[in-house]
Specification:
The protein contains 9 helices and 15 strands. By secondary structure, the chain is an alpha/beta fold. A hairpin with a 5-residue loop joins β3 (about 30) and β4 (about 35-40). The radius of gyration is 20 Å and the shape is globular.
Length: about 250
């Protein structure tokens, strides 16, 4: 009898990477009314994955402990407005930068605060584990009772609205978004030249060179074909160069 026809080889399974994000940081990552995780970071990493030919699964992950999920292998990537720092590079690897950020000070209308140094003896709200917390700790001292730490920046801003703190220090994108969408809070924001410019990167487990190469390939691709500029303009109203030239600015996780 004729030999059975050889069956076609099964297509290689597409690798699905688990992406950790703290969905409480609009406009970078948050949950909409349907419970879906949306935001600038989310659209960027989705576009990167599509361009580089891999699939992702977005998982809401609390900020506190989010980097441990990389080390333990529970997450393959962390995309959550993560500032690239030398200290973090010791325990994880970062993609090329995809967003320029800086710290901003949020205060209530009528506040006499005009610069970062004015916060030295005031009650300041920060998000635990962020670069905003670090700069305030340098100003006041790590053990200062006036530093009020919160699980998220929106919680810190709600405390500012309630009068529980005098100011909040956090990423520019988050503060500007909150101030814009909460006009009843009567907030304003202040930039300060003391704040060092920061950059966000996509974090992976230390030594995962294969995944890092895929991410950088995808990131370069979406910057080259205009996709990145489209996403940026959707969330910040202008392409990166024009947005950077605009006044105001800055805060970072």
């Amino acid at each position: 009898p004729p030999a059975p026809a050889a069956s076609a080889p099964a297509p290689a399974a597409v690798k699905v990477y688990a992406v950790g994000t703290d969905a409480a940081y609009a406009p970078f990552e948050s949950q909409n009314e349907k419970g879906e995780i949306v935001g600038f970071d989310i659209e960027v990493v989705q576009a990167v994955a599509k361009k580089a030919g891999f699939e992702i699964k977005i998982i809401n992950t609390p900020w506190e402990g989010i980097f441990n999920t990389l080390a333990q292998g529970d997450r393959d990537l962390v995309v959550s407005a993560v500032t690239i720092t030398d200290e973090r590079r010791q325990t994880m690897d970062f993609s090329d930068a995809y967003f320029d950020a800086q710290q901003l000070i949020a205060i209530k209308d009528g506040s006499k605060v005009t610069k970062f140094g004015d916060l030295k003896k005031l009650k300041v709200g920060v998000q635990t584990g962020t670069t905003g917390m670090e700069v305030v700790e340098k100003l006041q001292g790590k053990t200062s009772p006036n530093i009020k730490r919160f699980e998220s920046t929106p919680l810190a801003l709600k405390e500012l609205e309630a009068g529980g703190v005098d100011a909040v220090v956090a990423d520019n994108g988050v503060i500007i978004n909150y101030v814009t969408n909460n006009p009843g809070g009567k907030f304003k924001s202040i930039a300060d030249k003391e704040f060092v410019p920061e950059q966000y990167g996509i974090a992976v487990k230390k030594g995962n060179a294969e995944l890092l190469a895929k991410i950088n390939q995808g990131l370069a691709g979406i910057k080259a074909d205009g996709t990145y500029d489209q996403i940026f303009t959707k969330y910040f109203g202008a392409p990166p160069a024009k947005a950077a030239a605009a006044p105001a600015s800055a805060a970072s996780k």
